[in-house]
Design brief:
Layout: E1 3-4, E2 8-13, E3 16-21, E4 25-26, H1 29-44, E5 50-54, E6 60-61, H2 63-78, E7 82-86, H3 90-98, E8 106-108, H4 111-119
Parallel strand pairs: 3-5, 4-6, 5-7, 7-8
Antiparallel strand pairs: 1-2, 2-3
Helix pairs in contact: 1-2
Length: 122
């Protein structure tokens, strides 16, 4: 499955759903809902989803986007899958730290590290 809506590009690689966020600012509710729904749609068909979300382009995000990530994580966990995040800017990483979300999410510096982690999941 390959899809793109301008804000997000989604493709599969070796049964891993790779999501590239193509937006510098994830602040508007409309954009956040679109990103969330695209990702949930991509993982919906997978029996045990393995998902990598790459934040390489993202410089700012709102608390609503954090809520969307929590919802995505819950959907992945419900199916006994795994979610990994990578390429998170320092200012966004601070938000994850302050909110203790760094304890909920598996966060990696580089996509290759995250992919290796996901590939090693059974």
């Amino acid at each position: 499955m390959n899809s793109s809506n301008g804000l997000v590009r989604i493709f599969n690689k070796d049964q891993i759903v790779i999501v590239s966020l193509n937006c510098k600012k994830l602040l508007e509710e409309e954009h956040i809902n679109s990103v969330r729904d695209s990702i949930l749609g991509a993982i919906g068909a997978a029996p045990v989803p393995k998902v990598l979300i790459d934040f390489d382009e993202v410089e700012f995000l709102s608390s609503a986007m954090l809520g969307a990530l929590i919802k995505i994580n819950a959907a992945v966990n419900e199916k006994k899958g795994k979610l990994a995040l990578c390429n998170i800017e320092d200012n966004i990483a601070q938000i994850f730290k302050i909110t203790a979300l760094e304890k909920i999410f598996d966060i990696y510096d580089e996509p290759e590290e995250a992919l290796t982690s996901l590939e090693n999941q059974s």
